[in-house]
Specification:
The chain has 373 residues and is of the alpha/beta class. The protein has three domains: 2-86 and 259-278, 3-Layer(aba) Sandwich (Rossmann fold), CATH 3.40.50.720; 92-251, 3-Layer(aba) Sandwich (Rossmann fold), CATH 3.40.50; 297-369, 2-Layer Sandwich (Ribosomal Protein S8, Chain: A, domain 1). The chain has helices at 32-35, 51-54, 74-80, 92-110, 126-137, 147-153, 161-167, 191-195, 214-223, 242-247, 260-278, 307-318, 321-330, 335-340, 360-369; strands at 2-6, 21-25, 40-43, 61-64, 83-85, 118-122, 141-145, 170-173, 202-205, 228-231, 250-251, 297-301, 352-356. The strands form three sheets. It has a six-stranded parallel sheet with strand order 7-6-8-9-10-11, sandwiched between helices. The protein has a five-stranded parallel sheet with strand order 2-1-3-4-5, sandwiched between helices. A two-stranded parallel ribbon has the order 12-13. α5 links the parallel β6 (118-122) and β7 (141-145). The model has no long low-confidence stretch (mean pLDDT 95).
Amino acid sequence: MKIIIDNKIPYIKGTLESFAEVVYLAGNKTTPEIVKDADAIITRTRTVCNEKLLAGSKVKFIATATIGYDHIDTDYCDSVGITWTNAPGCNSKSVEQYIASALMALAEKKNFSLTGKTIGIVGVGNVGSKVARLCEIFGMKVLLNDPPRARIDGGKGFVELDAIFENADIITLHVPLNMDGIDKTYHLADDSFFAKTKKHPIIINSCRGEVTDTQSLKSALRSGQISGAVIDCWENEPELDRELLSLVDLATPHIAGYSKDGKANGTSMSIRALSKFFGLGINNWKCSGVEVPESIEIFIDGIGKTSQQVLAEAIFATYDIREDDKRLRASVETFEKQRGDYPVRREFPTFNIICKINNIKTINKLKHLGFKL
């Protein structure tokens, strides 16, 4: 048995060597010649698994340690009997943390309170549902749009995009990339999308670059039709649009889901799926040795501070999006390297907060975010 593994997948080395010949490769070095005698591939988004790569190979199983799977030609795989699996929800808490930091940074930069602001969440799956809960903790009004879920669930709790266009101060996108069909999301945010917005909202894209039309987004920012943007996912990565970079409030190199917890979850889910498919007997395997920051204790003196100020201080102590923004603007050409060498980031439950806070509501908000107090 032979398994090809993307060398960017962490916490995996030494796990499968007793079951198979294991070859670790960078995604762009996975070629038809290399996979022709492989039985399985474990990958991330940079390995394009299509007919060109797989035709004539022995591959029976593909696991991607990511939520997204548009790098896998699922129709081709299904047609030739290759089983494939992704890792739904693996980094949803990481994206939640990213959005939390983005919202706090925007509120500080533009001097507004999140309480009472209306946020439209487009796409309410594993990620969007967690972002909704986060925004409710912040005291925001939440509007949910997800046509596929609305059809399945009967529409209760969901709104049409028009309601978001009419009322949202912030719109955040959390949809998969669908190139066509009734739920097409390719260039969902286009000229028409931005033109319909009434309150000059801030746009956040941390799902897929192609969900926003770059030219339309730039035009909307230049005209003031939208009042700001946070972009993690870019069309034509890693060759991002420099003009768009200059226009947005916060820019990051597609790392919203890059917490160590999220990557560990994706690895664990892939190994378990591989084990079940081939009967390896490690169906409950879990990553070990996940890195932690130098300190997991956060000291906060909250006396005289607003709830938002305390929450921001706690969130930035775990992850400050502004640092990623500075790195990207300083060295756009190292987009891929910044992703590959990304600093240790752990999610809220890793941290202990030692605090002086006399507001029980603020304490409860910190607990609901997942912090230990």
